[in-house]
Design goal:
This protein is α+β, with helices and mostly antiparallel strands. It has helices at residues 2-16, 35-39, 58-70, 72-93, 135-201, 207-241, 278-299, 344-410, 416-450, and strands at residues 42-43, 98-109, 116-128, 265-266, 304-315, 327-336.
Length: 457
Amino acid sequence: MTNMRWWLVALVLSGCTIHPTYVRPRVAMPAGWHGTQALGNTQPAWPAHEWWRSFDDATLNELEQTALASNHDLQAALSRVAQARDTARIAGASLYPTLDVSLHGKRGQNIHKSSSGRANEATLIGGFDPDVWGELHGVKRAAQAQALAASEASANTALQVAANVASSYFQLAAFDERVELVRQTIETASRIDALIETRYRAGAVSDLDEAQSKTSLANIQAGLPALEQGREETLHALAILLAKSPAELTVQPRRLTGFSFPATLPVGLPSELLQRRPDIRQAEENLIAANADIGTARAKLFPSIALTGDGGYASDQLRNLLTKPNSTIAFTLAMLAPIFHGGALRADVDRSTERYKELLQDYHQTVLGALRDVEDALMALQKLSAQEELLDEAQRQAKRAFNLAEIRYRGGASDAFTMLTAQNTWLSTQNAVLQTRFARMNALVSLYRALGGGGQE
């Protein structure tokens, strides 16, 4: 008996070595962001949870709240979280004993004799798997990690939805200003065309001047439908994010030039990004699940033990069924040891190990991608800021050149082509300013997204 006890202890302890201990992968993280050295206006903090409120726009705040409460992709992600948690509960339930009841009654008639018989049974059936090697515990750990991974995937979906809403909102504002700009330019071009038409009828200018004027006006007018189409398509995309039909949404955003940039950008420290980005946390939970799967596959190489028992009552008289003389009880201890499976069990261990190695590489790649996203956004903010400043000066000079060209044309000191070219250049530089302004706002949204949004509450 003593030897049997020691054998059982050794059996259980050896089961502890089957499951590999999870250790978070070591990742070489930079001490700081390279992009902050040139940008300057940053601080080692993180964005607020509702980071979009930093833009101080009530309409945007309302759109974000609606999207996070209604977006179909996000609601589907939350359902996947619930499913994964239920799967984890199912896996955990296998660690507990099972108990079932069976009620059975049978009546028979002898076809050659007039005698008949009846059998009645009431049985409780119990079973328990002691999980000596931890196979069931491994399944439970993997399912719990997958539930957490689903939760992180849901958080990442919410982050993407919030960022896409902000980006679409700013793009709407950019389209509105560009449409307004083109309409104003059409008015100016129409005035210039009328001037040239009057001079043409008076014989003061050539056919070429008139043709160039009308060509310039038509080209400017042709740009308006494309902008209006882009505006509507952006509005439709925003409606889908809000779980609304495209025709249901009406939004009038603030002027794009009315948004101000934060005096300082909260960017945090690179080393803390591992706990900020939901996609990184999701990749790690997948890694934890794969690590648990290795132990589960190893446990299948060893014998399994099952304990079953049943007890109840059996009688040919229903009224005497629940009496002591009719009670029954039985216990069974069974062991199943794998002998030959054609190498399938060992192959399962190898497959699980390679799956862990694959997800380990995915984890490292996700971390590197996150670092790149932050650096790209910081660099974009720096370069676009400089570009917008230069384009502002360019459009001021283009406006001045057009005004001078119109004065010289009216005074007969310049031709129509010079004036029309100056007009188109002014329109082009104003468009470039607005597009660069939107790109800069979008880069700020990309930075918030790259930093993991507001992180965990």
